[in-house]
Amino acid sequence: MNSTELERRWICNSLPEEMADVNWGICHTTIKEVSQDSFIRIRLTSYGSYKFCFKSGHGSSRIEIDKEISKSQYEELLEEYKDCHALDMKMAHYYDLQNHRKYDLKKLNNEGRYLIETEFETELEMSQFQLPFTGCTEVTEDPEWEFINIYRRELK
Q1: What phi, psi does 142 have (nearest 5°)?
Q2: Is 44 exposed, middle or buried (0-12, 13-18, 19+ CB in 10 A)?
Q3: Are 109 and 90 in contact (CB under 8 A)?
Q4: pLDDT band at residue 2 using 50, 70 and 90 as cut-offs
Q5: Under 8 Å between Cβ of 49 and 68
Q6: Mind listing the pLDDT tens digit for each residue in 80-129?
Q7: Buried b or exposed e, range 3-25, using 16+ CB within 10 angstroms
Q8: Mean pLDDT of the chain
Q9: Domain interval for residue 96
Q10: What torsion, rounded to 10 degrees, do the Cα atoms 61, 67, 73, 79 define?
C-alpha cells in the first residue's frame, strides 16, 4: 500500500530528561539503495518482528511502503541483499501519554547523539506541532539527517 509519510526529525546531544528511562533494543537493518533518493530497508526488530520498507523522496513528506513480513521472506531478502551492508542500531519508542504522541528514538553509534522522529496524520497537524522537549534541533529538511545518510555514516 502506497502512502505518504509525514514525519519530522530532531537531533539531540543527549536525550531529553523525560526519555531517560526508555528501553533500548537492537534492530538489525539491511539497506538496498534503489536510486539516489529511494531505498529498500529490511529489519529484524528488537521485538522479534520482521519488516520490509520502501522509501522514496526527501524531507517531511515522502512515499513509504512499510509492512511486516514473515521470517522466511526476511531470510530470502537477506540472501538477495547479501552484498548490502547490515547495521545494528539501538532503537526505542517513547510514548508521551499526556500529548498522545509516539516518538521513535535512534542512538547514533558513531556520533554519540540521538535522533527523535514522530509522524503525523495531516500536514496541518505537522505544521502546528511544537516539540515539548528542550535541547533538540530540528533537522527534518536537512538531507544529512535522513535515515539513508545516517546509515551510510554509521557503516564507517
Answers
A1: -95, 110
A2: buried
A3: yes
A4: low
A5: yes
A6: 999 998 999 999 999 998 889 999 999 998 788 999 999 999 999 999 99
A7: eebbbbbbbbeebbeebeeeeee
A8: 91
A9: 3-155
A10: 20
Cβ neighbours for 124, distance < 8 A, ≥ 6 positions apart: none
Residue 141 and residue 56: Cα distance in Å, rounded? Answer: 14
CA distance 94 to 151: 22
Q: Are 52 and 77 in contact (CB under 8 A)?
A: yes
| Mean pLDDT along residues 39-55 | 93
φ/ψ (deg, to 5) at 149: -75, -35
- Number of separate domains in the chain: 1
* CA distance from start to end of the chain: 33
pLDDT at 127: 95
Could you tell me which residues come within 8 angstroms of residue 39 by beta carbon, excluding any fewer than 6 positions away?
Answer: 31, 32, 33, 54, 55, 148
Q: Which three cell numbers stand for residue 37?
A: 533518493
Residues 138 and 127 sit within 8 Å (Cβ to Cβ): no
**Domain containing residue 132: CATH number:** 2.40.320.10
